[in-house]
Amino acid sequence: MARGKLNIGVIGAGGIARRRTISGMLRARNCRLVAVMDPVGVEQVAAEFGVGAAYTTEEQLLADPNVQAVYIASPVYCHAKQIEMAAAAGKHILCEKPLTIDLASTRAAVETCRRHNVFLQEGYMMKFHGAHQLIKQLIDQGRLGKIVYMRAQLSCWYPPIPGAWRQDPSTGGGGALIDMATHLYDLLSYFAGPVVDITARCGNLVHNYRSEDASTTLLQFASGAQATVDCFYCIPDEASRTRLEIYGSQGAVLTEGTIGQGSRGKVEGVFGLGDAPYDPTQSKDVERRFRRLPFKAVNPYTAECQYFAQCVLEGRQPELNGPENALYIAELTDRAYRSAGREES
Fold first, then answer.
1. Which domains are assigned to the chain?
2. Digit-coded pLDDT (tens) for 100-151
3. pLDDT in tens, 182-192
4. Adjacent-strand bridge partners of 52
5. d(CA 138, CA 293)
6. Spatial distance between the Cα atoms of 81 and 104, rounded to a whole number of angstroms
7. Distance separating the N- and C-terminal Cα atoms of the chain
8. Can you name the residues that pair with 37 across neighbouring β-strands?
């Protein structure tokens, strides 16, 4: 295993970078934050995290010879150009999700990184959560039997905000579907394998901005498993428990609070079922023997940064959230929007 630390510069140091990722990166054993860039307030960010180099343009940061890799956390409409610039400068790239605004630009970004021989990882961090790592292990061990059905939920209250890039498809690629549902497409695919069929319904139920504030998706996997994903910008945060449900032929795992930006939540499971004879009374008063399942609390942003840095230090392309997965998610997103009646690339 390669040792040492990867020198990382942050492009777009406000928003999610300032709220979550930078603090997580600073806890990573193999990451060193050496520079931050943002057109607004970058000096304050640098002072907050003790970073010596603060820049206001991408060109300045990419010209810094101390920067080996970049974390891009700018608005989505900036990603494609910044990926192109970073790849041309020979910097490896960890980029926030979605990778770009649409399928065509995602294909171009992946090709650009391949042409310049730089590694690329997309920031779908939820699969690094300790609970989701546990669930993946249980599935791989066959504890749930054949996966039959999954449901994943992620909603928030996101009222109209002047200039909010997520509320306009021209700057964010869309709304609740591309911003939140794609997290869950990625997570459920991690559990159950590739999706072969996808159908979505999108619209605006409460808010009147151009991006959708409501989305529900039906997925079918190559294994035959089915799933639903429900993501809304118009449900108050306190009203949503962000549930994850996974049902198999021999048991089930249910969670609350594991989907999101945190590291905790609750996981319950029941196993060893599926051998009982048919009950013609169909009584639903049976005792359900779910038990609490402990898991290691892991900062998903720290874990994704550590994984990215280790791949770069070892000279290998990331597999989790790497270029092939980025294309897969972009294609699913495109198909989902098309099924909902919106033309994409």
1. 6-125+305-324 (3.40.50.720), 130-261+264-297 (3.30.360.10)
2. 999 999 999 999 999 999 999 999 999 999 999 999 999 999 999 999 999 9
3. 999 999 999 99
4. none
5. 11
6. 13
7. 41
8. 11, 55
What is the number of other CB atoms lying within 10 angstroms of the CB of residue 15?
Answer: 15
Three-state secondary structure call for residue 231: strand
Cα angle 186, 191, 196; round to 5: 65
CB atoms within 10 A of CB 92: 25
DSSP result, 41-74:
SHHHHHHHHT-SEEESSHHHHHT-TT--EEEE-S
The yes-or-no verdict on residue 1 having pLDDT over 80 is no
* Rounded distance between C-alpha atoms, residue 159 and residue 255, angstroms: 27
Q: Can you give the pLDDT at residue 345?
A: 41
Q: What is the pLDDT of residue 174?
A: 98
SS3 297: coil
Contacts of 12 (CB under 8 A, 6+ apart): 37, 38, 72, 73, 74, 75, 78, 82, 96
